[in-house]
Amino acid sequence: MSDVIRSEIQIRPPSVSSRMAASLARAGRKLAHEPLGLAGFVILGLLCFIAIFAPLLAPYDPAIQALGDALQPPSLAHLAGTDEFGRDILSRLIFGTRITIQTVLSISLIVGPIGLLIGVVAGFFGGRVDALLMRATDIVLSFPSLILALAFAAALGAGLTTAIIAISLTAWPPIARLARAEALVVRNADYVVAARLYGASPIRILFLYIAPMCVPSVIVRLTLNMAGIILTAASLGFLGLGAQPPAPEWGAMISSGRKFMLDYWWVAVMPGIAILLTSLAFNIAGDALRDILDPRHARS
Amino acid sequence: MQDRDQKPVLSVKGLNVRFGRGAVPAVSNVSFDVGRERVGIVGESGSGKSTTGRAIMRLLPPAAVVSAERLDLAGSPLLSKTERQMGALRGKDIALIMQDPRYSLNPVLSIGKQIAEAARLHLGLHKKQAFEAARAMLERVRISDPDRVMALYPHQISGGMGQRVMIAMMLLARPKLVIADEPTSALDVSVRKDVLLLLDELVRENNSGLLLISHDIRMVAAFCERIIVMYAGRIVETLTSLEDARHPYTRGLIAALPDPKNPVRRLAVLDRAKLDLETAQ
Amino acid sequence: MINVRDLDVVFTSGKSSNHVVRGISFQVGQGETLGIVGESGCGKSTVLRCLAGMESGWTGHIELGGKPIGRKRSREELKFAQMVFQDPYGSLHPRHRIGTALAEPLRAMGHSDIWSKVEKALVQVGLPASFANRFPHELSGGQRQRVAIARALILSPPILLLDEPTSALDVSIQAEILNLLADQREEKELTYLLVSHDLAVIAHMCDRVLIMKNGCFVDELTKADLQAGVTHDAYARELFEASFIEA
Questions:
Q1: Which of B224, B222, B249, B221 has the alpha carbon at shortest distance from B235?
Q2: Range of the domain at C230
């Protein structure tokens, strides 16, 4: 293939936005072959949509109490029934989506970069830096997140922010481990060696060569961890440590619905279904994401 | 080199292989026979030579569509066989020797166990007899100290020895046809000749046919009685020696090889556009 | 241009040690192409890596362009010798476009006017300038190797270290790459150190060949020797015959 063509074409790389559009288009095409994965993403998209347009979608105000209508079973008027204060459960679920999405996003944005940074630095530099960072990671890994959250709630007062901080503090070690494993492999690649040979500084190599190769695994791992994080957040809410009432946090809703479970099952079960669907969607989407981003794991 | 049988060991006519909905078939209208002789298929990457070998063994993934006018092993058609029937044939009547023993030998079984497994499966021997047969075969492939090697694992032996083990395992059941797909590419240069000579010896001894697939035209020319040259999924020429080369691709390939005996300033390069046009016709 | 004296490398892992390079010495004049041929494990790649600055455990004396070189390389020293790697599929960053891959050495060394240099580099190795927007997986093996060569030459080093540059390529592509290397060498008056296991390739490209076995040089052949099929050592003879070149 030795064509020597003089071209007048500008060879500056295309803008970031068009590059992103091209990547998304590629991903979209691959996704079209995976109906299950597509379903996962659709559900997640739906959740985001519901969270954004909650006030328009919810049939009732989630905070208004109507004690006369308390504990009504699911009906046409209240598709998910009402709780012990007569609040429409469906509306509370819809507004609760905001809390869930907020929690998930905040935790990802904190845990992802921190875990990636620590893992990549440990994997690339090796030696004492690696040992130090990994021992720190091991220590944090041994903390039970729930107990830590309790401690935080006691210290800082219960609330959504406290819950997010508590969960984030213990959710980054697996990401760091993963990033480190990838970095260990990548640092021996010829293209990294070549970079050292043409004088690229270690920081440059770390951020421009090593980190980009670790990002896909981290994204996939974060997505798959989301299910667990949602459950942890719900557990905290269940214990009363998350968003405080009257905020319609799903875990808190299950907690308060416990008392009525035998006779009025919908008060606890409806939020439970919401949590189930969301976790499932994240798992499925995470699997599909892995197939798209990391061809080594793809099913042929 | 004597043909004791008139019927060829392998008879291929009009073999076509397509992967999915790809526009270009991987193998297109390939026809050749292999008797009790050594036939080599030479080609570069993408020529379809490895695909041909695997198509004969019916080892291609389900996404591959294989069709042929005729694909017979000693008169018995292969395409109509079920996977179970093919499984019985593989290792017993047809053997495939692959490129890298690091990847083709089972890493968790010792050498002795692997060869004995082949003996049990294909020759129906019992455990002790199978081990005896394995030992004898290792001696046959000229591994000194076979008892020690039997206890080793694949990662503990060199590439050359790994290929000998592979040959031992594959030729234990005296298959009618041996397909060797780049058997020496992963080996050191000095070991290659020995491995090939060994293969040659065993194939002659069993009176089998050998189909040697390689990108190294000089090696194939030195070892095989007939050379089939493939390009872009088709056979472009069949030769008995390199001097007989007539097709522009074959001649181009030979001319592109650096030869210390005839040093040139610049190596001859293939004119692909012209070649693609000609082969398409 | 290159002067190596008593280069010695020992790899230790735990209790075992491997004496990979055993006190070898050689010289390469300016504009000369020296080949080192040997089988896997003989130490030829290690020698190359020591010269490139990739190995830090060597002892001995290395001079590039008359200046002694230490284990740690400064920026200036790195500009002296660049390397072309064996595996075209591994030497380019999968996420960087070709243009970026070629711009990186320039950026790391603080050059200006990067894009015109990148364009010039691509054209010099026979690729269209529009390839700068492509990713490595969109290129064939031969094209990737061209990019690797362009990247090695973009800093204008006087010495090029070549580690089996065509071993992973088809014969017809190999011919194109070897021609490219020969052309660049002539045009820029470069000094090459070529390492390979393929005697035919070495014989074609090199003025002199050193045969390496178990960390030592066992024979030295000139181009005339190779043409006549003359060897001075049994191992060299073995290698010759194993290359299927009619002796």
A1: B249
A2: 2-246
